[in-house]
Design brief:
Helices cover 23% and strands 19% of the residues. By secondary structure, the protein is of the alpha+beta class.
C-alpha cells in the first residue's frame, strides 16, 4: 500500500474505519473480470458528469473503460470550478517547464475527445515560438490543483496584445452547470478564465458518483457494472 492516490491515500492502521473494514471483509475474494481475466478497475476522483475512455486518456482501448455520461457525479465539490490566470502567469508557468514562448498571443484547443469534450491537445502561441501539450501534460503546466481535470473550456479577454480565439470544449453544458463563473469585473486585463468540471483523469469509476449511487440504494455490483460496463 502507498500513502498517495494510488492506494486512495491510505493513512495506516490507526486511521482505519469500522465501516470500510466491514466493506473489505464482506467483499473478500470477489473480483471483477472481463473475458475471463481480472479487470483493471481504474478510478478517478470525480468524472464531472462524463467519463473519459482509456483510449483517449492513454491510447489503449479497453472495452469496459469507455466514455459515458455519468449523471451521479454532478452534485459534489468538483462539479464545477473556475480560476483565472493572467497572461504573465501563463508565460511564467511555461518557462518553468522549459518553454519560453515570449509574449503569449493566443491559446488554442487543438483536439478534444470525440464523445465527452475532454481537452486532449492545446497550443500556447507567443511572440517567439509556440508550445503544444497533450493530455495530462496540460494539467502539469497549469497546475493539477488548479486545472482539476481536462473536462474544461477557456474564455479570454480581448486586449491589445492577446487575441484569444473562440475557445471550445463543453460550451453550453459547462455554462449551464457553472455556479462559480467569475464576473467580468473580476477579470483584470489580459487574463484567461478556465471553467471545468470533475477532478482527475476521468477514466473508470468516480468515487463521488459511487457515493451518490449508494444514496439511491444501488448495490455495489450495480455500481461497478455501471462504471465498468461488460464486466462480471
Amino acid at each position: 500500500l502507498t500513502d498517495d492516490t494510488r492506494s486512495q491515500v491510505y493513512k495506516g492502521y490507526s486511521n482505519e474505519n469500522k465501516n470500510t473494514n466491514k466493506a473489505v471483509d464482506d467483499t473478500r475474494g470477489i473480483i471483477g473480470t472481463y473475458g475471463g481475466s481480472v479487470a483493471q478497475m481504474i478510478y478517478n476522483s470525480s468524472s464531472g458528469g462524463q467519463t473519459l475512455s482509456a483510449k483517449d486518456a492513454w491510447g489503449t482501448e479497453i472495452p469496459y473503460l469507455v466514455s459515458q455520461v455519468d449523471p451521479y457525479s454532478l452534485n459534489n465539490d468538483y462539479s464545477n470550478w473556475s480560476f483565472i490566470m493572467s497572461r504573465q502567469d501563463i508565460e511564467k508557468a511555461l518557462k518553468n517547464k522549459g518553454k519560453d514562448i515570449g509574449i503569449l498571443n493566443s491559446i488554442t484547443i487543438d483536439e478534444t475527445s470525440l464523445d465527452g469534450g475532454y481537452v486532449l491537445k492545446m497550443t500556447f502561441s507567443g511572440s517567439k515560438s509556440s508550445a503544444t501539450f497533450t493530455k495530462d501534460a496540460i494539467r502539469g503546466v497549469l497546475g493539477n490543483g488548479k486545472l482539476k481535470s481536462l473536462f474544461f473550456k477557456i474564455n479570454g479577454t480581448q486586449s491589445a496584445t492577446i487575441y484569444p480565439q473562440e475557445f471550445v470544449a463543453l460550451g453550453k453544458y459547462l455554462d449551464s452547470i457553472s455556479k462559480n463563473k467569475p464576473s467580468a469585473d473580476q477579470v483584470a486585463g489580459e487574463s484567461f478564465i478556465f471553467m471545468g468540471s470533475g477532478y482527475g483523469h476521468g477514466v473508470g469509476m468516480s468515487p463521488y458518483g459511487t457515493q451518490e449511487m449508494s444514496k439511491k440504494v444501488y448495490k455495489y455490483n450495480q455500481i461497478l457494472e455501471f462504471y465498468y460496463p461488460g464486466i462480471k
